[in-house]
């Protein structure tokens, strides 16, 4: 019999219950809120298991839930929270959140993008002599007990030791974190024995490191670890995802584990299965967990059939989702407002579990009874507004090179040395959010909404002038989200009502869905940017989200290449950028914070992606005059991977996140010959940056970047800060710049 399961279920809840419970607890603490949080946790776990059971999964997945982040929860489980945060006298829950969010005991742990997704994980900190101890199995044991008590057949899920080490960083004199592996493996052995004692049949040990180009040293470590683990454990399902593990499939096949889970939806090579071991289970990640389109059951069943034959799997074939369903919303059935041309094609977590079950039925009984038709969104060609075909053939580059543009912009803008600016957004106050809710409900008229936004912009512009900023922004107060706003304003997107996915902790995003050809329909930011620019004589920087980021942070179509979709978006943005430029907005920032995130996991494919991203950016800004200064902003990046692209892109100035990583990105900027603004304070930390710290960061930057190229700005937008924090941080930033300038 074929076995069905999913790798994981969304943890935020269909009505974002986790978010609200977390925020209540953070705001007021207390035993009662802690109990409420615990109850919400139990309810969400139970609901997820019930959904899996009802859909017909043979196992329910236990262990994928987390109160903030599953990497942090694994560290807690293994008793290896960062040493610097261990001396806290507070309770377990409070110290868990102190590690995630910082507090009186010290700074939060670093946060990074999880593989090529828009989810963020907490970066483990390993120190020398670190010990691991899973105790009595902590929350995992509790959840297994809870699921079993509810009568579920349990497959436990844990992040594997190799990936857990890989994701972390060394501290306090530790030179090589692989040194810690033997101790960590012992702790896993202990944890596995606790699960064995509970009668857990299968353990999904996740090693997404296998989807990367795994260095030999780490592949060797994987072998050593699983040699030990498999001797002691119930059946291990070694699980990789986000890409078929082409580079190391042979290595995985040689591991002494009972089963392998691989992604069938990305870079899959059927032929690789020819040498699949005769004694292992193959869990086929056939239902795509990274997009929201329903699965073509017939085509997928055919591939699974061929896989079954090729590897002579018979009952050793399992059917599953490509990855955890944490990257898709909970239930497409609640999207009543989505048009009927699209709605039947949507598939969120609940529907995807259903698709896994349907595939199992097809593989068991053939095609009988499979009447549902599943199709991709149709291609509806719509010529891009305002362009002749010859325009679309233009090389996606601005007419003049950087040096010539820089000369023109210097005289057009007349900026001081070390110009200060911000990355775009100002506080999204509760009042602003409330206004948007009222507008959506129809409780206030559009005119009064717009009046309130204008008043907010006036305040933001005035404050920046008072704070001494050299280049102002309008504050992005008209947009609730930097991608959804553009999705709402262009043709081709579908906006969902409840389609939330977790970004980190309690933060969620509601990615728009690209369902048709994208085109420009009306100016999107022009009104607000030009309104703001008329309020002041200081230069105003317009704000547009870039094509790569819009596509990465949306659910894109499946029937078009990434390149086609991002070029369509870029063409629509090009009109916006052109309009902004010709209306007198002399500086325009085209944000690309998702540039690094979209990077393919395997190196061989990266060059092509980056060339497309630079082309799409070029298309977006190639319509403007060379006198208009184009900025871009990049954050959450390992900058080294995108540095060349940053300089290939047609931007004149790039702002990057730097303070949060201790200014380490500076080292890469030697030889970067354009304007650059390495952030001088971390916008995510509740601790206020001091003037001295900022001055020394600016001085450090001046050691690498020539003064005529250096900009001074925060790491990222200020929308999550309070006005009190913003006022204090920006006035210290101003003083820090003046201080450095005096010494120039
Ligand atoms: N301009 C955006 C902002 O300031 C950039 C956000 C981001 O980089 N994620 O909010
Ligand atoms: Zn940013």
Can you give a write-up of this model?
By secondary structure, the protein is α/β, with parallel strands linked by helices. The protein folds into two domains: 3-81 and 127-365, TIM Barrel; 402-486 and 515-743, TIM Barrel. The protein is 39% helix and 13% strand. The chain contains 23 helices and 21 strands. The strands form six sheets. An eight-stranded parallel beta sheet has the order 1-12-11-10-9-8-6-2. α20 (606-621) links the parallel β18 and β19. The protein is globular. Bound molecules: glutamine and zinc ion. Zinc ion (ZN) is lined by residues 423, 593, 633, 635, 657, 716. Belongs to the vitamin-B12 independent methionine synthase family. Its cofactor is Zn(2+). 5-methyltetrahydropteroyltri-L-glutamate binds at residues 19, 118, 507-508, 553.
Protein traits:
744 residues; alpha/beta; TIM Barrel; eight-stranded parallel beta sheet; five-stranded parallel beta sheet; 21 strands; globular; binds zinc ion; methyltransferase; Met_Synth_C/arc; metal-binding; methionine biosynthesis
**Global shape:** globular
Rg over CA atoms, rounded to whole Å, is: 26 Å
Q: Quote the CATH topology of the largest domain.
A: TIM Barrel
Strand-residue proportion: 5-15%
Average of per-residue pLDDT values: 93
Catalogue the unreliable spans: 371-390
Q: What compounds sit in this structure? A: glutamine, zinc ion
Distance from first to last alpha carbon: 75 Å
Second-tier CATH architecture of the largest domain: Alpha-Beta Barrel
CATH class of the largest domain, please? Alpha Beta
Count of spatially separate domains: 2
The total count of strands amounts to: 21
Strand order of the largest sheet: 1-12-11-10-9-8-6-2
**Residues in helices, as a percent range:** 25-40%
Major sheet: 8 strands, parallel
Structural class: alpha/beta
Number of helices: 23
């Amino acid at each position: 019999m074929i076995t069905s399961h999913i790798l994981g279920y969304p943890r935020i809840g269909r009505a974002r219950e986790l978010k609200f419970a977390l925020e209540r607890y953070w705001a007021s603490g207390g035993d009662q809120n802690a109990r409420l949080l615990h109850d919400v946790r139990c309810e969400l776990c139970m609901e997820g298991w019930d959904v899996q059971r009802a859909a017909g999964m043979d196992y329910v997945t236990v262990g994928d839930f987390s109160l903030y982040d599953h990497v942090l929860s694994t560290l807690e489980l293994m008793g290896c929270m960062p040493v610097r945060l261990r001396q806290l006298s507070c309770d377990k829950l409070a110290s868990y959140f102190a590690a995630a969010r910082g507090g009186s005991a010290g700074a939060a742990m670093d946060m990074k993008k999880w593989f090529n997704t828009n989810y963020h994980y907490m970066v483990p900190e390993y120190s020398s002599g670190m010990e691991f101890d899973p105790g009595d199995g902590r929350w995992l044991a509790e959840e297994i007990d809870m699921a079993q008590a509810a009568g579920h057949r349990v497959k436990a899920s844990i992040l594997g030791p190799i990936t857990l080490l890989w994701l972390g960083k060394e501290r306090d004199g530790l030179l090589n974190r692989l040194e810690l592996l033997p101790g960590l493996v012992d702790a896993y052995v202990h944890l596995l024995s606790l699960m064995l004692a509970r009668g857990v049949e299968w353990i999904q040990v996740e090693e997404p490191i296998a989807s990367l180009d795994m260095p030999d040293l780490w592949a060797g470590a994987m072998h050593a670890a699983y040699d030990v683990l498999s001797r002691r454990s119930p059946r291990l399902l070694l699980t990789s995802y986000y890409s078929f593990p082409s580079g190391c499939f042979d290595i995985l096949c040689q591991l002494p584990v009972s089963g392998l889970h691989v992604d069938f939806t990305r870079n899959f090579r059927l032929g690789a299965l020819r040498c699949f071991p005769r004694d292992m289970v193959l869990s086929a990640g056939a239902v795509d967990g990274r997009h929201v389109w329903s699965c073509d059951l017939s085509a997928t069943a055919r591939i699974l059939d061929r896989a079954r034959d090729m590897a002579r799997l018979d009952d050793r074939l399992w059917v599953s989702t490509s990855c955890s369903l944490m990257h898709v919303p909970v239930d497409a059935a609640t999207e009543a407002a989505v048009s009927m041309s699209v709605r039947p094609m949507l598939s969120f977590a609940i529907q995807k579990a259903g698709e896994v079950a349907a595939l199992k039925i097809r593989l068991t009984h053939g095609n009988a009874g499979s009447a549902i038709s599943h199709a991709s969104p149709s291609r509806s060609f719509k010529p891009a507004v305002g362009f002749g075909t010859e325009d679309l053939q233009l090389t996606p580059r601005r007419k003049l090179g950087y040096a010539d543009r820089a000369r023109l912009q210097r005289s057009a803008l007349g900026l001081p040395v070390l110009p200060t600016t911000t990355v775009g957004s100002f506080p999204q106050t509760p009042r602003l959010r409330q206004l948007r809710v009222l507008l959506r409900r129809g409780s206030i008229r559009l005119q009064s909404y717009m009046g309130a936004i204008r008043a907010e912009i006036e305040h933001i512009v005035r404050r920046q002038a008072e704070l001494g900023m050299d280049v102002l922004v309008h504050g992005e107060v008209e947009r609730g989200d930097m991608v959804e706003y553009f999705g709402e304003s262009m043709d081709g997107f579908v906006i969902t009502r409840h389609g939330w996915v977790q970004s980190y902790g309690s933060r969620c995003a509601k990615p728009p869905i690209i369902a048709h050809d994208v085109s420009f329909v009306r100016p999107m930011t022009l009104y607000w940017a030009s309104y703001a620019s008329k309020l002041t004589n200081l230069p105003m920087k317009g704000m547009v989200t870039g094509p790569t980021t819009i596509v990465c942070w949306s659910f894109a179509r499946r029937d078009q290449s990434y390149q086609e979709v991002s070029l369509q978006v870029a063409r629509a943005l090009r009109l916006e950028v052109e309009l902004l430029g010709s209306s007198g907005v002399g500086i325009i920032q085209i944000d690309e914070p998702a540039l690094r995130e979209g990077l393919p996991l395997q190196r061989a494919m990266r060059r092509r992606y980056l060339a497309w991203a630079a082309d799409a950016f070029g298309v977006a800004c190639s319509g403007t005059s060379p006198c208009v200064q184009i900025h871009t902003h990049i954050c959450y990046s390992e900058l080294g991977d995108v540095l060349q692209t940053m300089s290939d892109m047609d931007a004149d100035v790039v702002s990057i996140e730097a303070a949060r990583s201790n200014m380490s990105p500076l080292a890469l900027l030697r030889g970067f010959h354009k304007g650059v603004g390495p952030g001088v304070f971390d916008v995510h930390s509740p601790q206020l940056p001091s003037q001295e710290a900022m001055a020394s960061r600016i001085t450090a930057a001046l050691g690498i970047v020539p003064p005529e190229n250096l900009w001074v700005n925060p790491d990222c937008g200020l929308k999550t800060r309070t006005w009190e924090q913003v006022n204090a941080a920006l006035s210290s930033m101003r003083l820090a710049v003046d201080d450095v300038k005096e010494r120039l």
